Fold each of these.
Amino acid sequence: MDVRHKAFTEALESFSYLTEVDMVVLATQLDKRLIDGLENGKAQKFEYTLELCWKAIKLALKEQEGIDEASPKKVVKAWYLSGHLSEDDYLALIAAIDDRNKLSHIYDPTEFMTILARLPEYAKLLQRVKKSLGGK
């Protein structure tokens, strides 16, 4: 397994676990500043995992299809056009990339929480993408 694919798989395992943690329950037991830190960490883990995802796709795309694209959205589109993703997963992955980009520039807590609420679905999406890469 390629180093990028392995790193993506490991990051995805950790990210998926974090999306299953019930922050509401934790908020009854922990200081709100700690919860804020955990939520920010979850967002950063999403950004990191998605970065590894598209780079693993880029490598697979080059090896399997002989296609070399540079940007995340072009890589994902080429992977979709090569028949490795459903249209729904393609569109969801583009939305995830948009959300990842927004996280770097969000100053509105409501918008931040809206994106955080989508992370469990993104974890499931990235699991499907991993399968499209040949991951178990």
Note: The two ends are 12 Å apart (CA to CA).
Amino acid sequence: MLLRGKPDALVPGDLAPFALSYVEAPARFGAAMRSSFDRVTPWERTVYVHQ
């Protein structure tokens, strides 16, 4: 799932159906995700570009 937009438009119950899913979201969604889920594990991606 990809989150975009205004995080203050969400209430904790809105994200509950995605508890067993991978959720990609900007840092501004951190508070909404932590209040919705028991465990939030950040996963940073690295992109390598071959020139």
Note: The mean pLDDT is 87.
